[in-house]
Design brief:
Blueprint: E1 8-13, H1 22-38, E2 43-46, H2 52-63, E3 71-76, H3 87-99, E4 102-105, H4 114-123, E5 128-132, H5 139-149, E6 153-156
Parallel strand pairs: 1-2, 1-5, 2-3, 3-4, 5-6
């Protein structure tokens, strides 16, 4: 995985997006990505879990038509991480995976802590973090705390 020296943005978000807010969040997400591209961001890292990660992956694939210089790197916890997902989520993930420039698996197999390792890999080397978090605790909140600790500029779409 290449280091883009300050030209990298990661995404951290909730797995559940309120249906009635989906379109508004998607539009704001795309607008923020465009602003980042205009500022020189070229590499975008997404975890590709259902919810906000998937929204980010789909937005990037859509925006690549206008901005072919951007790269989508998927940071994934382990190779078989989709086995308990719905068929719809697996299909969407497959489409994003196929369109991504790179997929980085932090492990070949599940172990306790591989999701946290993936979250740290999302943040490490990033300068920006676009997030949408609504819960008070969990992996996303810990990842956001790690991003803040590492001095990333946070763009919070939940506010």
């Amino acid at each position: 995985m290449e280091n883009m020296n300050g030209q990298t943005c990661c995404f951290i978000g909730s797995k559940k997006i309120p249906f009635e807010k989906y379109d508004k969040i998607q539009k704001r997400l795309e607008d923020e990505i465009v602003k980042l591209i205009i500022q020189g961001v070229r590499c975008f890292r997404a975890g590709c879990s259902p919810g906000f990660d998937t929204m980010a992956g789909l937005a990037l694939l859509k925006l690549r038509y206008r901005f072919p210089q951007i790269r989508l790197v998927l940071m994934l916890p382990y190779r078989d991480h989709t086995k308990s997902w719905s068929k719809k989520d697996i299909k969407t993930y497959g489409m994003i995976l196929e369109g991504a420039d790179e997929a980085v698996y932090v492990s070949d197999y599940y172990y306790n802590g591989c999701a946290q390792k993936r979250n740290r890999a999302l943040v490490d080397g990033s300068r920006f973090c676009v997030c949408y978090l609504t819960g008070a605790s969990g992996g996303g909140e810990r990842a956001l705390g790690y991003a803040l600790k590492n001095g990333l500029k946070i763009i919070d779409l939940a506010k």
